[in-house]
C-alpha cells in the first residue's frame, strides 16, 4: 500500500499537468462518484483511471493499488450483503442469510463507488511531486504555508513509515518469527507488537525534523518558489473533461 502515496518520476502529459488540475480531478471525481448511483457510470470512471495510469506510465505500480482497493471493496461488499435481506432471494450464504437482488445491487454499488472514488486520489499522488503540490497550494490557492506544509509532510511520511514497517518485519523474519500468514486474525496479532518500535522511530523522526525546521527559520517570513506553475491548453482541456464528468453524474443520478 505504500505505492499509493509515492511519486513516480516521468515526463508524460499527465505528469506535466498543473498540480491543481490533478487535485481538482481527484476531488471532483470523488464527488461525482458519490452523486451517481449508476453502476455503469462508476465502472466507466474506474476504467478512466486505468487509462490515466497507463497514460502516465504508472499502470504497473498502480496494479497494487487496484488490487488493494478490490480486496477492501470485496470485503465491504460481502459485509453489506449480510445486512440487506430485502428483495428477491437468489440463494443463501448461511442459513437464514439470503443474497437478494437489491442486496447484490447495492453491495456492488458500494464496491464500485469506493474503488472509483479512491483511485483518482492515489493516482494524483503518484503523478504529482509533493514540492509542486506545496507550491500550488501556497502560491495559487493562498493557503498559509504552515498548513500546506503539514498536509504535504504527512503525505511524504506515509511511504517512509511503510518502508520502516517492512524493515521491522524483515528483521522479525530473520529472527524466525512467522509474519507471512494469510490468516487475517493472525496477521493482526503479528503486526500489533511491531507497531511499538515503529511508533518510537516515528516520534524520533518527527522530533529531528522539528529541530531542523527551527534551525532553518521555518515560517519566519514570506517564501518564494523556484518554479512557476502555469496553466496550459492541456490543463484547460482536463478541467473541461472533469466538469463534464461531474455534470454527467448529476444528470444520470
From TrEMBL:
Top-level taxon of origin: Bacteria
Keywords, alphabetical: Cell membrane, Membrane, Transmembrane, Transmembrane helix
Signal peptide: none
Entry-linked Pfam families: CbiQ
GO CC annotation: plasma membrane
InterPro entries named in the record: ABC/ECF_trnsptr_transmembrane (IPR003339), ECF_transporter_component (IPR051611)
Bilayer topology: Multi-pass membrane protein
Transmembrane feature ranges: 23-53, 65-83, 103-127, 234-252
Localization, UniProt: Membrane
Protein name: Energy-coupling factor transport system permease protein
Organism placement in taxonomy: Bacteria, Bacillati, Bacillota, Clostridia, Eubacteriales
